[in-house]
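Sequence in, structure out. Go.
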Amino acid sequence: MASTNTPLPSDFPENGPDNRKSRRRARHPESWIDEIEATLRDADPTDLDALKARLSDQLTATRRSLRDASENAGDLMRETIDCTEEYIHARPWQAVGLVAGAAFLFGVIVGRQ
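Output:
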């Protein structure tokens, strides 16, 4: 069997599905919203300062979580673009064939309407 220098998709493990598992947020964003709602329901009018402190902490944690999720999405997008570029440079004719096939299918779908 002849050896080729073209990489296989398995040659890019840093962009594979195993790496995405480590990026998942520890908690779902709705859990913070549920926590805030529970804090508001359980609050006594006498401990308003404690309520403000708890809400501030929860909002800070939510803001941090959303910022981290945004950064992770940006990182994943950049890694996906890099992997796609590497694949296209390694297999240019396959990339041209895939684009031609997609364009053909798009033309068939649009042509029927």
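Check: Residues 15-25 have pLDDT under 50 and may be disordered. Helices lie at 17-21, 29-42, 48-90, 92-112.
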